[in-house]
Fold this protein.
Amino acid sequence: MIDNQPESNNEQEVLTNRQGHPVTDNQNVRTVGDRGPTVLENYNFLEKITHFDRERIPERVVHARGAGAHGYFEAYGSLGDEPINKYTRAKLFQEKGKITPVFVRFSTVIHGGHSPETLRDPRGFAVKFYTEDGNWDLVGNNLKIFFIRDPIKFPDLVHAFKPDPVTNKQDPNRIFDFISLTPEATHMITWLFSPWGIPASYRHMEGSGVNTYKWVNADGVGYLVKYHFIPKQGVKCLTQAQAEQIQSKEFNHATVDLYEAIENGEYPEWEFAVQILSDDEHPELDFDPLDPTKVWPQEQIPLLPVGRMVLDKNPTNYFAEVEQAAFGTGVLVDGLDFSDDKLLQGRTFSYSDTQRHRIGTNYLQLPINSPKTKVATNLRDGQMTYRVDGVEAGENPHVNYEPSSMHGLKEAPKSGKDHTPYVEGPVTRQKISRTNDYGQAGDRYRAFSDEERDDLILNLVNALKQCNPDIQERMVEHFTQADPEYGSRVREGLQQSQAM
Ligand code: HEM
């Protein structure tokens, strides 16, 4: 057990209220006589109870259950045998040994803030790098890919996976109703229902940016890039039976594991690696490099380590640091850029939008979200304004606009040439042409060991046997398209389960 109690201190600080008034009685409300009723001018009581009434903020609409830790990223200063500045001018990667502080939040996706951490569900892996050029957020998951490639489908995907709006219970029939009409999800479902679908802990899982981003060098040349974290502790997962066994005793096991490891000085560490492609459509590939339902096969596009990440400090307050942490895919630094991946662009709107609602207009002034560099903006006011960004940096307090000749803020110099991709085409609503919804699902099925395939079929059959026959039929068809054996084994499993 970890002893969290500070050493006993006889010289205790005096309790005050938020107005700074010493509180002389924190045990009794003010009443008429000792039996009440209470009187309305109980200022301290009203402050205390009304603040308590507002202690919770809305949960994240997804990824509500999570745990976080502080640490650092150490750069290797190169990309394989090449200088890294050939590909990106982002400062955090340039020098060997350069340290950038980070805050990481791991999460499950579907259920609420205190739900079990043993569920079959992707895991979130969100990293905030506090770089010298401001913050960079990499908001990823543990499975390298995603269910969909078009952001307009995201609310439907989440609704299908969340509890039924009538019974308030998650229902495989709703999940597979949606998935059976979403062929591009076949690859992700194959991973999720395989033995890789329940990570043993947050320390023992991979992380991946999933979406394709860009790196930009000093000449403004862009490259397509995918990001990966590989745990030095190894990857460990739970079988369904192991997960159920753990859940019967401790449903916070992943949070406890992370916290205790760090308290005990066993700091988890990940290698941070990238895959790089030139910035074009790559017609030689049988998938689109901007499609987040696909992996970039490592045999074709190697993983190149660029640094390591260590987590060595637990939060001092869960709410302030973990619950109020706000990560978003739009938060990039100079030398990093967006690709045309549609899912990435949809996400980029969604994160800061939800955070203005979930935390508040000034969520970026909170210490966990604020960069560790100087912040100097002309943004002003709004609920819970805590500081005036530009003035602390030396701006004339009368000037909250730009341009100005009166000692206001001025635009920053450019650090390199702009990356100016040329895009043209009809404005349309259309799928990408290289969908290849089943190719990598089939490759994955065939790459699994016999035991992994057995477990995949068992987990799928156990979920699908709760579904309507037409949904089962459509799912079997998707698996058959991926690999005929895959489809026939799920079909046989379903037939046997119904015979029982
Ligand atoms: C169009 C697709 C998506 C949309 C619209 C979307 C939207 C959201 C929203 C609204 C949140 C809550 C954020 C907050 O309250 O702070 C969230 C959290 C999160 N999402 Fe997504 N998401 C999408 C796809 C993805 C994908 C593909 C991944 C993985 C690569 C992902 C990883 C995460 C993670 C890790 C979090 C939790 C961040 C944290 O720990 O605070 N999301 N997402």
Observations:
- Residues 439-499 form one domain.
- The pocket of protoporphyrin IX containing FE is lined by residues 60-63, 66, 105, 107, 124, 126, 139-141, 146, 151, 154, 210, 292, 325-327, 343, 346-347, 350-351, 354-355, 358 (CB under 6 Å).
- The mean pLDDT is 95.
- The chain has three domains: 18-55, 66-365, 439-499.
